[in-house]
Amino acid sequence: MNTTIESDQELFSIINKEKDFQNSHLNLHPKENVMINASRKVLGSILTNKYSEGFPGARYYGGTHVIDKIETLCTSRLKQFLKLGEKSNDEWLSNVQCYSGSHAELAICMGLLNKGDRILRIRGDFDTVLENYYQVDYYNLDKKGKGFDIVDLREKCKILKPKLLLVPSDVLTSFIDYRLLSEICNEFKIFLAADISEIALLIAFNRYGKEENNPFRYCDIIYSNTQSSLGGPKGGFLMLNNSKNPGMFQKVNSAVFPGLQGGPHNHQIGSFAVQIQGMLTSRTVEFVAAALDNSTVLAQTMLDSGIPLLGDGTDTHLVSVDCERLGVPCELISKILTECKIRHTYRKFEENRSSIMFGTLVYTFRGGSVSQMTILGNLISDCINVGVEIFNKVGKLDIPIETRENIFQEEISKNDRLKLIFDRVSGIISELETIYFD
């Protein structure tokens, strides 16, 4: 039997191509980070051999007393990482078995709600899944995207009477006021659940605003993926405030397993335990500070170039272009950025509102500086301005959508300014540190 990845040349060549891709592109994707080497080694360890359905001390079969310690250790480290170590053991109860952040969200809904109950959330990618079981309605951002439209939210809570309010962390670049959301939820007896996937790292290192911005002070339940800001393996976790909701954790826990999933991925849980422990260093403090400096410079440079941003700036490592105020579809801007090797993401969060979002974690991990970011901010702004010009030229023509898309692509391909931007972005990428994969 072949025992090395190099012996599988077909797969190994694809991995090498992806490695080259990651190092040859400017990664400003807000949902990506880089795993530490020790964490990746655990992900490929013998822990993946183990089948252990159930939970520590309550598995479906014997021979799991050793593997139980992995999950218990991960749970303990997560609590310490999020500065909950001083809390009593039964105040925040957690599940680290979730296969993803979306699994955690579904488990919360299954555990807290009955079929047909109403959920209030920002429009997102998993609405159709939730709509199979629940009534889903949407709240909005305020006009500038600085925060949620609280008047709209409160009115919908009053009229629609939802059982659960889901709060994302991948829409706003400003600090979220969880205290205000909690006051509304308490008034109308609504569960408040916060997805902290994009901000968990900032919360852990006390870089996410003031007391009112701490979800652990005001939310009933917290959930997250384990990769976006935390840089771990693909997975998820959830934590429930047991002191506010005694007896509810078992329902949510059972929704994860056996409700949604099979046995836990022990290699992923062990890898995540190593990842969060490895980040408890002074170097991570410096890394977080540098990532925030880079995002501040990126936002200000784009604002100085006339690019409208949600919230007119940023409080976090995220920067988001307001495509509604820009007047150009996010899909067109995305194509142009992709053409120039600039990775990003975009999402529609209301029927007629969308944004292009950037994040600075991977860029900072590769040693990217604020001086380089100033240059990149101007280049990204140039990309967006090219998109505005192309849209003004082509976007309003009364022609079939498919024809318009083809013309867009032709205009992008032949644009000389974009070729110059591509070369300058490539030059900065070549100055960044290489991500090694041993």
TrEMBL record:
Name of one Pfam family that matches: SHMT
Pathway assigned in UniProt: One-carbon metabolism; tetrahydrofolate interconversion
Gene3D superfamilies, sorted: Aspartate Aminotransferase, domain 1 (3.90.1150.10), Type I PLP-dependent aspartate aminotransferase-like (Major domain) (3.40.640.10)
UniProt enzyme class: transferase
Methyltransferase in keyword set: yes
Gene Ontology BP annotations: glycine biosynthetic process from serine; methylation; tetrahydrofolate interconversion
EC number: 2.1.2.1
Family statement drawn from the similarity comment of this UniProt entry: Belongs to the SHMT family.
Protein name: glycine hydroxymethyltransferase
Organism of provenance: Cryptosporidium meleagridis
Lineage: Eukaryota, Sar, Alveolata, Apicomplexa, Conoidasida
